[in-house]
Amino acid sequence: MALVKNAMSERSHATAAVPYFAPTEIGVLPPSMQEAELRNAEEIAYGNRVRAGVHAALASAAASLRVCEALMKDLSQMEYPERLRESQRCANEAQSSARLAEHSAAILEGRELPKVDAKTEIRKLTAAVYERFGQLTRKNP
Known about the structure:
Strand content: under 5%
Number of helices: 4
């Protein structure tokens, strides 16, 4: 469990999708630049799917491990109704784990899109503009 938690915390910075800012008029670009833009968009989309898929798979693994840990505890000291409640809680967490695993598969297959973080979009916009057009012009007050 500690390994999964560690992996999740190490990757927490890489969970947000990286936005792709396409040129406004891609049709006026030379064919080689159009092709490069399409490859760039595909690579960014692939990277976003992998990042989100890894995060969802790790979350699913963590939930599954929590269920296993709970089920391996000695519950003999509990009253029967308490054991039933704990069993139901484990069942609910196992269902959550299955949903997370399905979400991971859907993202990796492209059936679902990774969520985009608005803060990341704003931060990346400046970098994307600079990368495309060079130094940013700033208006003097």
